Amino acid sequence: MVRFLAWRSLRAFLTIFLVVTFAFLVLRLSGDPAQIIMGADAPPEAVEAFRSAWGLDRSVWEQYLGYVGSIFTGDLGRSMRDGRPAAALVAERIPATLALTIPALMLKLGLGIPAGIYAALHRNSVIDRLVMLVAVAGFTIPSFVLGLLLVLVFAVQLGWLPSGGQESWRHAILPVVTLGIGGAAVLARFTRSAMLEVLGQPYIRTASAKGVPWRRVVSGHAAPNAAIPTVTIIGFMLGSLIAGAVVVESVFSWPGVGRLMVVAVANRDLAVVQCVLLLVSFTMVVANFLVDLAYGLIDPRLRTGAQGGH
């Protein structure tokens, strides 16, 4: 187990390091933040003074070493817009994002997994075709299109719900549904495919032939073995709790991390963008680690194999 954890920790560190490096280089090559923030009409002297004040006049290599060093000291930089610490700006937006993504995750799990299992157990039935039709539609429709359709119907035409903002719990309904439907569709498709593959295995037919009740065959044999690919998707959804709402937050004017990210990218607010990407990569790494642990709990053979392999 120690070697297993050490290997996963090293892989997590390398992943975060690569993300940080890639984000740093791309942001530096995408335009001069000083020119964008100061404006096209700013005097050259003012632009140069801004670049000097924020260390942008140094070489990219010097900036990179300084940034990596500051990460290890807990300093993630300051916003070029208002001078506040980037970590504080991001931290104050996290609760708003989680207020959308956690209920959306519950919606995905509550709709997608039962729908996928039911469709697999009633393969080629009318319900199965209907579930898959809805799943394909939910999977293929972009979230911003779905969000705008929901606003058009429930906010503009019916007037039941607000179209944006964060004043009350009613403002969260449409963005949560927008986030939840697509994920539920993905879970339904993967769960159905996994269940169908397991239901076709010889040990399932053997258990049925021995007279084991079908409900017990499904709950005790089929569902646990079909859970492994489904857990992978759930892990990805957990990892995207912070980054998964970028488009939806913009559509519904929700003041979360995703909307902050969009504004920071447009303004070339380097420290804020880097801080968000660091948070997202850390969240994905933690989610992948939890998925690895879940694999071992679901099937001890995988845990034993992982320990032996590493």
UniProtKB/TrEMBL annotation:
Its main location: membrane. Pfam families: BPD_transp_1, BPD_transp_1_N. InterPro entries: BPD_transp_1_N, MetI-like, MetI-like_sf. SUPFAM superfamilies: MetI-like. The chain crosses the membrane at residues 98-121, 133-160, 172-190, 226-251, 271-295. The keyword tRNA-binding does not apply. It is a multi-pass membrane protein. It is found in: Cell membrane. Residues 94-291 form the ABC transmembrane type-1 domain. The keyword S-adenosyl-L-methionine does not apply. Belongs to the binding-protein-dependent transport system permease family. This is ABC transporter permease. It comes from Rhodovarius crocodyli.
